[in-house]
User: Which sequence fits this backbone?
């Protein structure tokens, strides 16, 4: 995984700004409710805009509050990891949103739940892939806090107004990002094989 020299204290402002922006967008939506229609709409061109926008849109105050606390906790844990936090967030949002646009049910999908699922899987999987004490402790903590919610959130609920497919696509994206970044770090850190030295031989 890409090394990052940062601390929670250094990144807390960015975390609060990100979550604060989600709240500002919700307040704007109270006066402009039409913006909630700009979520991910699978297999529709206008739904492509929803891929980066989806985490900022929420249906109601309960939806927003239920996402705010886990999102804050997961972003703070991510800030304390070795990963480049905002690179991880962007990759999960774009990849998870793309999966949802391709495979999701016909509906307008909004909310940060997909990002939450993605961050949960990312922190758990990268913690075990890193095989280091701090990432492992973070993985265990995240699994304890959100493992059950993650499993329940990705179970198919056909006919439900809960975007379980958004949760599932976010979780898959988190797994891909964890594996891809960890594999990339290991490749960069692996010592390069020295070139074989051959003795001078006569040319034939």
Assistant:
């Amino acid at each position: 995984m890409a090394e990052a020299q940062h601390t929670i204290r250094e990144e807390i402002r960015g975390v609060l700004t990100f979550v604060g922006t989600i709240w500002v967008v919700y307040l704007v939506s109270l006066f402009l409710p039409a913006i909630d229609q700009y979520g991910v709409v699978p297999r529709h061109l206008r739904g492509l805009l929803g891929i980066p926008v989806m985490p900022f849109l929420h249906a109601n105050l309960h939806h927003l509050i239920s996402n705010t606390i886990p999102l804050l906790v997961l972003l703070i844990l991510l800030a304390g990891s070795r990963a480049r936090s905002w690179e991880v967030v962007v990759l999960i949002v774009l990849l998870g949103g793309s999966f949802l646009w391709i495979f999701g049910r016909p509906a307008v999908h909004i909310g940060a739940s997909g990002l939450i699922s993605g961050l949960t899987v990312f922190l758990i999987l990268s913690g075990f892939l890193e095989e280091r004490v701090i990432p492992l402790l973070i993985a265990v903590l995240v699994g304890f806090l959100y493992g059950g919610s993650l499993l329940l959130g990705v179970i198919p609920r056909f006919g439900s107004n809960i975007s379980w497919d958004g949760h599932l696509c976010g979780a898959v994206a988190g797994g891909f990002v964890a594996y891809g970044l960890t594999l990339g770090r290991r490749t960069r850190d692996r010592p390069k094989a020295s070139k074989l030295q051959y003795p001078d031989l006569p040319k034939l």
